[in-house]
Amino acid sequence: MPNKKKDYQIILASIQKPVIGEAGITGTWSKLKPVINSEKCIPSKSGKPGCFNCWLFCPEGVVSRTIPPKINIEYCKGCGICKEECPASAISMEEVEIE
Amino acid sequence: MNLVKVMDVQEEEYIYPGTRMCAGCAMALIYRFALKALGPKTILTVPASCLTVLHGMQGFCTTKVSVLHTPFATTGASASGIVASLEEKGLNNEICVVAFAGDGGTVDIGIQALSGAAERGTDFIYACYDNEAYMNTGVQRSGATPQGAHTTTTPGGKMKPKKNMLKIMEAHGIAYVATANGSYPIDIYEKFKKARTMIGTKYIHILSPCPPGWGYDPKETIKIGRLAVETGFWPLYEIINGKFNLSRESKKYLDPSKRKPIIDYLGAQKRFKGISDEDIEDYKTYINNLWDEIKKRIDH
Ligand SMILES: Cc1ncc(C[n+]2csc(CCOP(=O)(O)OP(=O)(O)O)c2C)c(N)n1
Ligand code: SF4
Ligand code: SF4
Ligand code: SF4
Ligand SMILES: [Mg+2]
Question: Could you tell me if B20 lies within 8 Å of chain A, comparing CB atoms?
Fold first, then answer.
């Protein structure tokens, strides 16, 4: 006879636990990370919110919409999209160690 | 409508970082902005695809939004079931049901259940992110693969043109049909926001560049997607209760002289390597005819 309680528990097990870094520290996928030059970055220079292309186009959502924008390199995959889409050429890709 | 600016977009992220998506995946970006627009009071249903993989392994989840993983052919049917249960509980006005599927899961495998749901006028959004092949299983051709593209099952380049899913969905007479593109995240945001407020079946088809499947460097994702719009191959538009509305970013391409040559788009991707002159001519004809039709619909 199937144990009713057990069946119910099996269904409950399909409820998933929210997790950051489900695929591990994905920042380790690439050594190259974007580094923002605040002297060139538009909102950093003006002190006013604006541009934020790096925030907008990052597929990983690891750039903050702050002045200056900050990049969470632990989960940045180093795709280089933010560098390509920066209108002020304020981003360079550099080798950065993840702690 | 007021122009949505970058600061107007929801700042909160609904996807936890560290998913399994490839670097430079446009689908991850599309999903990011779709969820920002939809918000937490949403239930998603997702068939087998790269998007399944984004949500992680059994026992874990990577989004702040509830997601049901559904068998391949059942996306439209599962969405109908969720809508029916919400109606039963009186929660259908509060919670939005969204099916999110790949092109294979939409234009081939899921088309029957989607067509059924659309014919019933089921109150939900169906979003298709179109990377133009079965990517999760290693780049097999789908009905949405464009002419001339190499996949593992079209080693000489696909001989048939891309299936016109937008026309098929429009023919259902549904409330909302729209195209979008991963390189225009604010446009994606606006369209999902709008669709969320409408009643009935809403269909959004989003072109989704894929670095390994299309053969280009991940950093080029936004440029490649933009070229699809700039060449006129992928116009951005909405059809709201039958009324055609060309989206802001595509307006200038009504003028053929503003369109970039299609070879700029095709030539930037390895999947089109060695594409024949006949295929390129077919693209030019396709684009001209597409825009003639758009022009007629706008003048009306
Ligand atoms: C019934 C069934 N057949 C085949 C598969 C294998 N499968 C998993 S994902 C996938 C490809 C889906 O392609 P698409 O819908 O375009 O999404 P993409 O992977 O490109 O994101 C296939 C064939 C499956 N999971 N279930
Ligand atoms: S894209 Fe460049 S200029 Fe714009 S906010 Fe980011 S770093 Fe600054
Ligand atoms: S390199 Fe790619 S993943 Fe990293 S911050 Fe820039 S856009 Fe995001
Ligand atoms: S194969 Fe393509 S669609 Fe799938 S995760 Fe990688 S880039 Fe994204
Ligand atoms: Mg696909």
Answer: yes
Contact B73, B109 (CB under 8 A): yes
Asked, for residue B7, whether it belongs to a domain, the answer is no
For residue B10, being part of any structural domain is answered with: no
Q: What is the DSSP string of B190-212?
A: HHHHHHHHS-SEEEEEEE---HH
User: What's the one-letter identity of residue A97?
Assistant: E
Q: What is the pLDDT of residue A6?
A: 60
The count of domains in chain B is 1
A20 Cβ partners below 8 Å, 6+ apart?
Answer: A75, B16, B17, B18
Range of the domain at B155: 15-299
Q: Do B56 and A19 make contact, defined as CB atoms within 8 angstroms?
A: yes
Cα-flanking dihedrals φ and ψ of residue B245, to 5°? -135, 110
Chain B residues close to A13, C-beta within 8 Å? 59
A19, A57, A75 member nearest B60 (Cβ): A19
| Predicted complex ipTM | 0.96
**How much is the pTM?**
0.96
Q: Which residue matches tokens 């209108």?
A: A87
Q: Give the model's pLDDT for residue A1.
A: 45
Side-chain half-sphere exposure of B272, counting CA atoms within 13 A: 18
What average pLDDT is seen over chain B? 97
Give the distance from residue B180's alpha carbon to the nearest chain A alpha carbon, in angstroms. 15
Strands B42-46 and A17-18 turn out to be: unpaired
Among candidates B11, B23, B63 on the partner chain, residue whose Cβ is nearest the Cβ of A79: B23
Q: Is B223 on the interface with A (CB under 8 A)?
A: yes
Q: Considering the domain boundaries, does residue A54 fall inside one? A: yes
- Shortest distance between the Cα of A77 and any Cα of chain B, in A, equals 6
- Which residues in chain A come in under a pLDDT of 50? 1-2
Where residue A82 sits, what CATH number does that domain have?
3.30.70.20
